[in-house]
UniProtKB/TrEMBL annotation:
GO CC aspect terms: cytosol
Alphabetical UniProt keywords: Iron, Metal-binding, Oxidoreductase, Peroxidase
Listed InterPro entries: Dimeric_a/b-barrel (IPR011008), Dyp_peroxidase (IPR006314)
Protein name: Peroxidase
Domain of life: Bacteria
First and last residue of the signal peptide: none
Record carries keyword Acyltransferase: no
Record organism: Streptomyces spiralis
Length: 444
C-alpha cells in the first residue's frame, strides 16, 4: 500500500489520466487534431480545459468516465509557445517519436515510413483521450469534449482510434494485461505490488522531487508544473504467427501454455511464474491483491522460475540484480486492445488489423520509456543475456531464439520472428489544467 508522504500533490491541477488506473472493463477513444489557425488553437485549449477531468475528481480508482488532453511539440509550436520555453522540454519530446525510431527499435516493417498516417508527422498537434466503463458512457464523454473542437474551422480532426478492455482484461495474445502499476507518493492510490516502496511523485509528475532528488519542470513553471509526458503507440499484433510459434515449439497443448508462460513471465490467466512456477493458478491470476506482490532476488535470482529474458522481468526487473537502478526506470503503463479478436484455434492471419494501444506516463522520457525500450526490451546486456531481445514485443529479426533456464539442461527455443509491429505513435505533453488555460490565453 502507498505509504504516508509529506508530498502534497496538487491533484486538482493534474489531469486524471496521469494517475488514475483505468476501470475494468472500459472503452476508449484517441482523437488527434491539427491546429491550422493559431487563435482557434488557443480557443481549443480554453474549451478543452473545461472538459478535462482532474485527479481530484477520482472518487475511486475505478471511477467513471474522464477526458485527457495532450500536445505534441509541434502542437505547442502551433499555439505560439516561445522557442525559449520549448527548449526547456525534454529533448526526446522536441525530436518526436519518429525521429527516435532507431533507438526504439522501430525499423523494418515498424519504421516510420510504414506508419499509419498521420502518426509521426508534423500534422498531429493535439490528442484527446476519452475513457469510460462502457461504450454508451464513452460516447457521453466524447460528447462532453466535442464542444471543445466542434465548429472551429481552424481545427482539423486527422485521426481516431477506438479501443477497449474486456472484463477478462486479456489482450490479443491471450494474456491478462494491466496487472502492474506503481504507487506514487501523494496520489492516494495504492500500487499493485505491496512489496514495492512508493515512488517519488517527480518520477511521474513534473515539478516535484524525483528519485534522484531533482525536480524537472519545463519553463515557465506555470506551463510545466503538474504536467507529465505521455507516449502513445499503436502496436499491431500478429496473433496467428504467435500461435504457430507456440505450436511449433511445444510437445502439446499443456507445453504450449508453459512456453507461453515462460516467454511472458506469467500464465495467460495473469498468475506469475514467481508464485505459480509449475502450474497455472487462475484464482491467483484474477486476484489483484496477490498476483503482482512478489520479487525475484530472494527466491529466483537465476531465473529458474521466471526467466531473465521474459517480458515482465525485462520491463520491470523489480529487485533483481541488473545493470542500472530499477526505480529510475519505472513507468505508469496503460494498454487497450483494438480490433476484433482472432477466433480461437485459427492459425492463419485473416488480414484484420488488431493490436494494442500503449500509453506510458512519466516525467522522464529518456530514462524511463526510451531506456526500457532500448536497453531492456531490445537488448540483454543488462542481465548478462547476450544479444537476445524481448520475446513478445522485441524488434526480432529471426536470428535469436529464447532460452528457458532449467535443471539439468536448459531448453532452447527456435529463433523468434517479430510478433508486434509498430503502426505509429507520438511523444506528447500532458499539461496541467491551469496550463491548458494558460495556453488558451497566449498572446502574440
Amino acid at each position: 500500500m502507498s505509504e504516508p508522504s509529506a508530498v502534497g500533490l496538487e491533484l486538482d491541477d493534474i489531469q486524471r489520466g496521469v494517475l488514475s488506473p483505468r476501470p475494468t472493463p472500459y472503452a476508449a477513444a484517441y482523437l488527434a487534431f491539427r491546429i491550422d489557425d493559431r487563435e482557434q488553437g488557443r480557443e481549443l485549449m480554453r474549451r478543452v480545459s473545461g472538459a478535462v477531468t482532474s485527479a481530484a475528481d477520482a472518487a475511486s480508482p475505478l471511477g467513471d468516465a474522464w477526458v485527457s488532453a495532450a500536445l505534441t511539440c509541434r502542437g505547442l509550436e502551433a499555439l505560439g509557445v516561445p522557442a525559449a520555453s520549448l527548449d526547456t522540454f525534454a529533448w526526446e519530446f522536441r525530436q518526436g517519436m519518429a525521429a527516435r525510431a532507431g533507438a526504439l527499435g522501430d525499423v523494418g516493417d515498424s519504421a516510420p515510413e510504414h506508419w499509419e498516417a498521420p502518426l509521426g508527422t508534423p500534422d498531429v498537434h493535439v490528442v484527446i483521450t476519452a475513457i469510460a466503463p462502457d461504450s454508451p458512457r464513452l460516447q457521453a464523454a466524447i460528447e462532453r469534449a466535442r464542444p471543445a473542437y466542434d465548429r472551429l474551422p481552424g481545427i482539423t480532426a486527422v485521426w481516431r482510434q477506438d479501443c477497449y478492455a474486456l472484463p477478462t482484461e486479456t489482450e490479443h495474445f491471450g494474456y491478462r494485461d494491466g496487472v502492474s502499476h506503481p504507487a506514487v507518493e501523494g496520489s492516494g492510490i495504492a500500487g499493485s505490488n505491496r512489496l514495492e516502496v512508493p515512488l517519488k511523485a517527480g518520477e511521474f509528475v513534473l515539478g516535484y522531487p524525483d528519485e534522484l532528488g531533482g525536480a524537472q519542470t519545463p519553463q515557465p513553471a506555470a506551463l510545466g508544473r503538474n504536467g507529465s509526458y505521455a507516449v502513445f503507440r499503436k502496436l499491431h499484433q500478429d496473433v496467428a504467427r504467435f500461435r504457430r510459434y507456440l505450436r511449433d515449439n511445444s510437445t502439446g497443448p499443456e507445453d504450449q501454455e508453459l512456453i507461453a508462460a515462460k516467454i511472458m513471465g506469467r500464465w495467460r490467466s495473469g498468475a506469475p511464474l514467481a508464485l505459480a512456477p509449475e502450474h497455472d493458478d487462475p484464482a491467483l491470476g484474477a486476484d489483484p491483491h496477490r498476483r503482482n506482490t512478489f520479487q525475484y532476488q530472494r527466491d529466483d535470482p537465476i531465473g529458474f522460475r521466471t526467466p531473465g529474458g521474459c517480458h515482465i522481468r525485462r520491463a520491470n526487473p523489480r529487485d533483481a540484480a541488473v545493470a542500472g537502478e530499477v526505480r529510475l526506470h519505472r513507468m505508469i503503463r496503460r494498454g487497450a486492445v483494438y480490433g476484433p479478436p482472432l477466433p480461437d484455434g485459427v492459425l492463419e492471419d485473416d488480414g484484420v488489423d488488431r493490436g494494442l494501444m500503449f500509453a506510458f506516463i512519466g516525467a522522464h522520457l529518456g530514462r524511463q520509456f526510451e531506456f526500457v525500450q532500448s536497453e531492456w526490451l531490445n537488448d540483454s546486456v543488462f542481465f548478462g543475456g547476450g544479444d537476445g531481445k524481448d520475446p513478445v514485443t522485441g524488434s526480432q529479426d529471426g536470428s535469436t531464439g529464447f532460452t528457458v533456464p532449467r535443471r539439468p539442461v536448459r531448453r532452447r527455443l527456435a529463433a523468434l520472428p517479430r510478433f508486434v509491429v509498430t503502426r505509429g505513435g507520438e511523444y506528447c505533453f500532458l499539461p496541467s489544467l491551469s496550463a491548458l488555460r494558460r495556453l488558451g490565453g497566449l498572446q502574440e
